[in-house]
Amino acid sequence: MRQPRSGPGKSRGRGRGPRIPATTLRKQQAALANVDQITGAKIPKSFVFSRGKLPSTLRHLQQDLRKVMLPYTALNLKEKKRNNLKDFVNVAGPLGVTHFLILSNPKSLPHLRFSNSPQGPTFTFQIEEYALAADIANSQKRPRCPPGIFKNSPLVVLSGFSGLGNPFESLVEYFQHMVPAVDPSTVKLAECQRILLLKYDKEKEVVDFRHYSIKLQPVGISRRIRKLMQNNQVPDLRDLKDVSDYVTKAGYGSESEVDDEAATVSLPSDVDKLNQASRKSAVRLQEIGPRMTMRLVKVEAGLCSGDVLYPWPVAKESVGKKGEVNEEVNEEDIGQEDTEDGLEDGSEEEMEE
């Protein structure tokens, strides 16, 4: 009869804890992925999809919106005709998706709905004008959209929404929680590379949607030197007699670009080898698209359903009573006008006689 082994091997076996099932481990990893490890807050995630058939231009706009919401969105989300809204809600729960951006193309103008999953509310916008990211890049002399800027969420900047009351207060809260919150004391400047600007025009009553990339340029350094330090490549000096001609000769960009003092900042920490805390840097924004002009047309309490909160609902009974009162007043006014006209006509006849 064999005796059980004793020794260091046996003690190591007893020291190990119970084995965690693979399903439980995956759930724990998914829960950690949905929580910010620094702030401890839940990371907002989004789905950008469409309802109904879209033309090719709106399909490209949908893909551009997915890039705006990166990295916490499904860039290659595939939809099928038989999928309904309930299917997206069922999938969103386990994946931690909290926001929906839904594109549709009714007979009038394209619509874009912003909604919270799974209970709402839903803000429906009518897209009056839009331009794709490719159109904006083609209109620029030097487009700048490196793929590395999509590794972090954009910074949301809101303008013109103060003092509007509901439903715009709820809309502002939605936009603020659409991307992860930023802690100024712990955020790394190298991660802030995009801005999503949402500006409300009170005169036209529309929301301007703009998407920019952030670029830092050191002040006092010529463009040629910046390129030399960024690319780490030896420039073509065959037509020059001396290396100094590359910087000082006219036509080689020896002069530094004019920097606006209002856009010049002192960095609290080093961003890269060019933009360091000991130097001043100029902040430059370049639009990368897409661009939209939207008008708020409807607010619903639920997820694409429920009570209509905007435009303000009016009771039918009060409308009917008001109409009856108006009709009575109009009849009295008409009678008074007839009597006044009769008096005026009579007085004129008497004067003529």
Automatic annotation (TrEMBL):
Disordered as annotated region, ranges: 1-21, 317-353
Domain Brix: 44-305
Name of a matching Pfam family: Brix
Regions of compositional bias (Acidic residues) in chain numbering: 326-353
InterPro entries in UniProt: Brix (IPR007109), PPAN-like (IPR045112)
PANTHER family: PETER PAN-RELATED, SUPPRESSOR OF SWI4 1 HOMOLOG
Identification of the protein by name: Brix domain-containing protein
Organism (species): Urochloa decumbens
